Amino acid sequence: MKFLGEVAKLVYEQNPEGLEKVAVVFPSIRAGLFFKQELSKLSDKAFFSPEVFSIEEFASKIANIVPADRLRLIFELFKVYKNFFGNETFDNFYNWGAVILKDFDDIDKNLVNAKELFRIIKAYKEIDEEFKTNLDDYESYQAFWETFSKQKKTNHKTSFIELWKKLYGIYTEFTKVLREKKTAYQGLIFREASSIVLKDKFSIGHDKIYFAGFNYITKSEKLIMQTLKDRNDAQILWNADQYYINDIPDHEAGSHLRKNFKTFGDKDLKWISNNFSNTKKISIYSTGLKIAQTKVITNILNSIENPGVNTAIVLPTDSMLSPILNSIPEDVKSVNVSMGYPLRYNSFHSLIKAYIKLHSDKRTDSSGDSFYFKDVFRVLFSNIIFPLYRDENESFKILFDFKSNITKQRITYINKDLIPASVKVNNIVKDIFKPVESVSDIFNNIESIILGILDASYSTFYKFETEFINTYLQFLRNLKGILTEYETELDLETFWKLYMDVIREYRLPLKGEPLEGLQILGLLETRNLSFENVLVLSFNEKILPGGKFIESFIPFNLKKSFGINTFEDLHNSSANYFYNLIKDAKNIHLIYLADTTNEGDGEVSRYMTQLKIELPKLNNQIELEYFTIDSPEGESGETVIEVKKYPEMFKKYYSGEKLLSPSAINNFVNCSLKFYLSNILELFELEKFNEEIDAKTIGNILHEVMNQLYSDYINADVDCEIINKLRAESNSMTEAVMSNEPFYIKDSDTGYSLITKKIIQGLVNRLLEADKKYAPFKILQLENSKEVYKTPVKVDNGEIFIGGKIDRIDLKDGITRIVDYKTGKVDFSESGDKEISLEKISTYFSDPKYKEILQTYIYSYIYRKSTGTEKFKVTLLSLKSKKEITLDVISENLEEDKLRKFEDNLINLISEIFNLKNSFKQTDDVKRCNYCPYKSICGR
Ligand code: SF4
Fold first, then answer.
1. Which of 417, 441, 839, 862 has the maximal Cβ count within 10 Å?
2. What is the CATH architecture of 3-65+192-237?
3. 3-65+192-237 and 275-340+511-629 share one fold
4. Which CATH architecture has domain 275-340+511-629?
5. Interval 305-361: pLDDT, tens
6. Residue 32: is its pLDDT beyond 90?
7. How many whole angstroms from 496 Cα to the centroid of ligand 1?
8. Strand order of the sheet with strand 363-365?
9. Residue list, ligand 1 pocket, CB within 6 Å
């Protein structure tokens, strides 16, 4: 029988007269819920349930103290701290305060003599030199210093030593204040509770108390449990297994339990399971990239029949919660998430982050506030604000025109008066760009922005989004309430820091029926629960178990001598939770990240090596299998960006105002989100649009220079002599074209202007050299001609045109040639294909490696369809390629069977682009993001 079942049976059988005077205490409240369920199975008749507590609730009840939230405690501590350090600012205090609070918590939980400890810490500091000779300590000490600003190190160091001297005084005053207010941090509650339990007349009002399923116990917990046990008021029930207690006598998973058995004696040892002797199938998956884990999870869940309450997905870190929720197969009817949805992993929070950045980067002068263009675009084109423009036909256009003007004029700081609004977003936009002078302005503005969005989008929001916004507002109001209550003056920078730090702790509770459905939970919440199927993600070293570094003012050796928990205790606890989690399971799936760029450094958890080496020696029914998931799935970062399609997005395409160009098609093949950002939003390439000249501008200037150079030679025969003449003119022509650019500084012999000029002149000369080799030829048409080549394609909601302008058309030996200048990076050798291959045609439409050949053939297809010409050639001229700069495609090579297959694939791809049923999504292949200009939007 599983542990909670055993506990329920024992409690039931030992108390035949009734359970109303019985209390059962677990390390977590979650185990209590499942315990009650086990208890209910024991009788058909109704009976009173015992009172069930988590150990924190139990201590709180004994001490009659309500725990305070961490932020309130930090402000309370700051008040005391100021009594010792005069006019210290909250900014200087904040980082230290969080560390001090954690240390006080550990000190009290372990009933440490604080006076003695702080005296020794002070002395320890005074023998600093000796301290430095201890390598372990010195490393933690150095790591601790790294948390502070390097520039301020010297000042901080001085204050740090001062702080050490005064820590005991701060501790005494702080705990006194909290006691008076009848509130406390957990450690202080446990210290109070343990001293109350020691009093002779103590009574909690229960005849019998069971402490069940504990592993690591602090000194205060130990004292409470031991005192009640010695008075015959309590019984302690351990959750242990032979495997890590006796079979491997020094196994870390059993380390705390073995100590506990010694402390409490083994009289209470009712049972030790032997579940590692059962059949188990352990599958270990190595994935290169974080998001690939979700695909593995989907496949495993699909292979499990009815993955309900018998199945647990364990997330050691919460960053994967959102992608995992999105990857649960549809036929899994019910899911219970016990860990809460972190507020910081949502588009709303991304918008607020963008808002914070907007105001942090802004400039103010006599004309008012101006905002950095990237920040402005990030806010206006965010997933939340951008769709609000869509209901009004004109608004979209106004927004796009605004963007296009800013990019054309290369405005880096945008005055707020230029920001376009529309009826629906008017107030929201006003709030976003409203001046921020104080912290209270921030609260008011953010609250108005959120309420405005809620109001404008209410009808389209799902329940989850509405609840999320309400929780976000709650967080804001709580933070505002605490700041007002403590009358703390914060500068804006400190406030932003605090805001981002505090939000890490806020979660939207995901309501569900905890005893039903597939369980998604953190490792701590699995304590004492049993599952048949266990799926563990991020099964990496430094995650399971966690790292070694714990921020603290108390050196490692002192922690050990005073019995304060260290990272070793945490590691032993993690091992116990993990082995207990898998001891009852039959199917265990452990997924780790082999990529060194991910959290966990690409190293699999030490538990895998232990399982591999130790377990099969004791049990030959253990089946271990290994999988390498080498699909090119990408790293999603914190959220997977997905944009729903709607007809207005494609309006310009349906009306024929815009053509779907070959390079847009290539964008879609590369990443559908990139297509959305570049070809629907027409978002200027953020990464490249710096104050400096960018590749796109270089391309535009080069095209214009070539147009102007050849403009007098339309329909003329161009030979080497003419090209030599053009070469002589090319430098001054480049200068003339550049002079129209806003960045251009006439006669400049330094800076970007000069560098750009030299680059473009070099490229133009390279093109003319290539032309010289090809000469003689006749120019038929240049890019600035009015002629546009296009051909219609039917899609779901109408008809669109693929096509575009052609850089140049020339004629040589009776063959028409379509020329496309490529100023970006082109590598013809990458695909190895210069000729279209029938077998590979579908691959061209899915693998961006073939982008050159795909683009060239799409040009060829458009030209053929729109002119009826069958014999011509398409040439890509790549100006960045080191050796060969041309890729020629001869139209005759596109035979009937190839043409048909090519056309089918092209039409399928275009239909997919315009299909409203699917969304624009980030590519799964993170390598495609390496050179993407939208990396900063995607967080990749
Ligand atoms: S960064 Fe990656 S996911 Fe984002 S648009 Fe670019 S290619 Fe797509």
1. 862
2. 3-Layer(aba) Sandwich (3.40)
3. yes
4. 3-Layer(aba) Sandwich (3.40)
5. 888 899 999 998 887 887 888 788 888 888 888 888 888 877 788 889 999 999 988
6. yes
7. 28
8. 363-365, 368-372, 413-415
9. 671, 673-674, 677, 922-923, 928-929, 932, 934-935, 938, 940
